[in-house]
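Blinded run. Sample ID left blank on purpose so nobody reads anything into the name before looking at the predicted structure. Input follows.
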Amino acid sequence: MNYSANSSTQIALSLTVNGVQVEAAVDARTLLIDFLRSHLGLTGTHNGCSYGVCGACTVLIDGVASRSCIALAAQLNGSSIETIESVACTERGREILETISECRGLQCGFCTPGIVMTLVELDRQTQSPKDDHIEESIDGHLCRCTGYGGIREAVNRTLGRTSQ
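Blinded prediction complete.
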């Protein structure tokens, strides 16, 4: 087999993305973020670092907040993917986004989709998260604009409680 830089292996991919069944042939090396953005036109997921460090590319894979810039699309065959486009259309997603804005938890907005996806996972999995859960959930997100105070306030307000 020829392993030159120009050769590519196409993989049949079947995913559910934002509730819609998607079938495609992708290069075996295609990252999930590239599949979402380039193949499906879902550009709300941002690529900030390409190393899984900044959190801007966070999506939900089978309900778990995951970095799409380090996940190969072909490895996710049969998975369910949720992006900011679907979450932002839900009442709870809109509430989280609006509260982040009201609390001045965003400025440029580049990190916001990833943070929202993480908060959606936290909201779904934890009825009343304590501060250490909140800190842990947003710990993997880099925001260069806000200093995190507004984001923390928004999380507390959105989850209907005050800081503990």
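Unblinding after everyone has recorded impressions. Residues 112-125 form the longest helix (14 residues).
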